[in-house]
Design brief:
The structure holds two protein chains of two kinds. Chain A is mostly beta strands. Chain A has no helices and twelve strands. In chain A, β5 and β6 (46-52) form a beta hairpin. The termini of chain A are far apart. Chain B is mainly beta. The chains are: A mainly beta, B mainly beta.
Chain lengths: 113, 115
């Protein structure tokens, strides 16, 4: 079975600074997708960024980028120029078959003004 | 267009009662998923529907939990004889198709509290 681990329960960053959230996973599959979701207090899970395992190039979406290390099974999220609106729970997730997402336990990100 | 809609937003009920939670997916999305999020935890998969295929119920925690999807659209998650450990946020998601390349879009969830 696949597992996803987020080792940082909480992180904090100063506004305008950069922060990196860690995620590791375990799978025997070679083709899969990895995702970062943001969950603000409103509860809705918002897709931040996704990475296809067969693509070596790291995905980027504006201020969000990932460092995908397939051999190490590592998938970290970097947030540049942090904004107050970035404060939320962040979940790393894995999917290889389209029938379910496997989530990590989440990292609470606090942004200090 | 409209996103995934869930109702009610909050539900408080007494232990032993039955509850029904509703999910209305994005129009045209054939895949629908239910997840449970206990306080301070990640999401736990419950059940998945794809088109007219038999649902994948492998995540349902007990036989008190069941779900239906009528007409390939709206889904209802039913919990019978609720227990206090059922208290959680229940999130529904939908996607264009049941492929890992299709991202799942989530609703705002239903917060269920069992007294």
């Amino acid at each position: 079975a696949q597992t996803v681990t987020q080792s940082q329960p909480e992180m904090s960053v100063q506004e305008a600074e950069t922060v990196t959230l860690s995620c590791t996973y375990d799978t025997s599959e070679s083709d899969y997708y990895l995702f970062w979701y943001k969950q603000p207090p409103s509860r809705q899970m918002i897709l931040v960024i996704r990475q296809e395992a067969y693509k070596q190039q790291n995905a980027t979406e504006n201020r969000f980028s990932v460092n995908f290390q397939k051999a190490a099974k590592s998938f970290s999220l970097k947030i540049s120029d942090s904004q107050l609106g970035d404060a939320a729970m962040y979940f790393c997730a894995y999917d290889n078959a389209g029938n379910m997402l496997t989530f990590g336990g989440g990292t609470r990100l606090m942004v200090k003004p | 267009g409209a996103g995934v809609s869930q109702s009610p937003s909050n539900k408080v009920t007494e232990k032993g009662k039955d509850v029904e939670l509703r999910c209305d997916p994005i129009s045209g999305h054939t895949a629908l998923y239910w997840y449970r999020q206990s306080l301070g935890q990640g999401l736990e998969f419950l059940i998945y529907f794809q088109g007219n295929s038999a649902p994948d119920k492998s995540g349902l925690p007990s036989d008190r939990f069941s779900a239906e999807r009528t007409g390939g659209s709206v889904s209802t998650l039913t919990i019978q004889r609720t227990q206090q450990e059922d208290s959680a946020v229940y999130l529904c998601a939908s996607s264009l198709g049941a492929r890992a390349s299709q991202p799942q879009h989530f609703g705002d969830g239903t917060r269920l509290s069992i007294l």
